[in-house]
Amino acid sequence: MTDFMTGHHLAQVNVGRIVAPLDSPELADFMAQLPEINALAEASPGFVWRMVDDAGEDATGFRPDGADDMLLINCSVWESVEALRDFTYHSDHLRVLSRRREWFHRVAEAYQALWWIPAGHLPSVAEAMERVAMIREQGPGPLAFTFRSPFPAPSGAARPDDRLQGAGEPGQ
Amino acid sequence: MTAEDSAFETLGVLADPVRRRLYRHVAAAPDEVGRDAAAEAAGVSRSLAAFHLDKLVEAGLLAVSFRRLSGRTGPGAGRPAKLYRRAEGEHAVSVPPRSYDTAGRLLAEVVENAGLDRELQAAARAAGAADPDAAAGDLVEVLRTRGYEPFWDGETLRLRNCPFHALAGEFSALVCGMNLALLEGLAAGPWSAAMDARPGWCCVALSKGKSD
């Protein structure tokens, strides 16, 4: 359900280093399943938006770290943490997710972030990477958090500069 | 009272066999259960069922809500029925004390950080396939014994309980992936597993005769 009281949506980003180029045999299954999984996301309750590159199909064209050719980004917006959790872990997406180590390297640092945005705002690649950096530097806080340490949507009306207020809490 | 004392008290309420039958029936039912249905399932009178059901509520094992079963509202619709469902929360006690949950959480964290998803899934699938009762064909009973609380919903076998609930909440990708592999290992042959999530349930459902 949209958080109508506060007018916020949940943004999500995760990054991953692919084990081989997108057109390699190693990534073939991943690339083949991507359209289906993106369609499943779009049809899921609580889906709002997903980031796509200039090609318009998915986000595999983005390289959020200019120095890293193999780093992919995935970013989307949902009505609630529960809606995102249901899609991520409790739908057929789990079948793809459970094969993540075939296609993506394990990363020691945080590779995902969740944060609240004013409904209607669409996050950019830079904004999303900033949130991942916040978790890496400060641990989960109200400005960038995880499924395991969620934070409630800000109270009061959403303001465009919400993302600049408050400091992430050092943590964990 | 220590946490252990309170766990003993709560679980002690289930020592009575009638209460245990009522609890199991309500806990495994896909929907909330009324007194009449619970009484019939446990083979006792309605008033005896009501007495024991309320003891289970007092102990915090069942929760209650009131609803008109007929769907009617307004004057003439009758009194709302008292409906029972399993309460939230987990109760476990072991003598002597054991902390397999602590070990499970630590192991999960290490497996997650080491990126060993595939190794875990392979082990889970093999463990499922090695279950002698599942291989003998009695999958429903095997799932019951393993705590999944299976029930038939038409042609689909749904699983009312997630045996890995707390770990699955904390290490979802890892533990749900392990569980899916375990079920695929158990459900060999004519069965196929499909994702079918509902809050608090196992997110997998099984059906026969369809191949993936």
Automatic annotation (TrEMBL), chain A:
Say which domain of life the source belongs to.
Bacteria
Residues of the DUF3291 domain: 10-149
Q: Region annotation Disordered: residue ranges?
A: 149-172
The name under which this protein is listed is DUF3291 domain-containing protein
- Organism whose genome encodes this protein: Actinacidiphila yanglinensis
TrEMBL record, chain B:
Q: What is this protein called?
A: Predicted transcriptional regulator, ArsR family
Q: Which InterPro entries match?
A: ArsR-like_HTH, WH-like_DNA-bd_sf, WH_DNA-bd_sf
Q: In which organism is this protein found?
A: Actinacidiphila yanglinensis
Q: Which domain of life is it from?
A: Bacteria
Q: Name one Pfam family in it.
A: HTH_20
